[in-house]
Amino acid sequence: MAAADQAGSGSGLAVRVSDLDVTFPAGTEAVRGLTLDVEPGSFTAIIGPNGCGKSTLLRVLAGLLRPTSGGARLGEQPPRAGDGRVGLAFQQPRLIPWLSTLDNVALPLSLHGDREAKRRAERALAQVGLTGAADLKPRQLSGGMAQRAALARALISDPPLLLLDEPFSALDALTREAFDSELQRLWMHERRSVVLVTHSVGEAIRLADRIVVMTPRPGRVAATIDVDLPRPRETELTGNPRAAAIEAQVRAALAAPGATELAPWVAA
Known about the structure:
The protein is globular. By secondary structure, it is an alpha/beta fold. It contains nine helices and nine strands.
């Protein structure tokens, strides 16, 4: 059954990146002339070699980094730090060790004096299946549980835009696949806009409506590939001819810039 048939009716946020340049003070040019549109309620995966500006792009969208030139708009407004419309989850959970799981999840709202912070944190924990871990400290959580807590923290403000910077990359393969399934379920239940940075071609195909392939630094868009597979998608897509064709397109786009560091991507 197609995504439109099963997805929830939540509203996402449109993203427009226009001719974005980011050069760091030491002179490193991370991104050059990057232009990208994200449709409201869509799921976009961004993939490319190390150092190509994927995380830099997310930091710009989160309002944590100011572009050198060009810019981005979230809906009708530019990004700004602390924007409640944006949820952000990183590769590492970054939980505060002396706080409980519930208090870690509630922290973004608690810092702003939100009296509903605890209640909303409880709801976010329920969304990711962590209700029973509310009173545990980070040292008592497994790696997968800690990542669930980090995802709950990103979801607590019910943001129309969710930015995910390789949040599952440190997990073992089976746990990561389970997380992919859960993330797909959450997205289909409420169609917020999602931008996921990943190094996994398979993960991008399992989750995304569209895969954006970036060039080696300075990062630009090398190709945009639609993933027209029905949802919900199986964890294992081996043997699916359409998935295989999409994977071949992605790997060809990754190889096109000719960077030697991309050879393993093409051979894998």
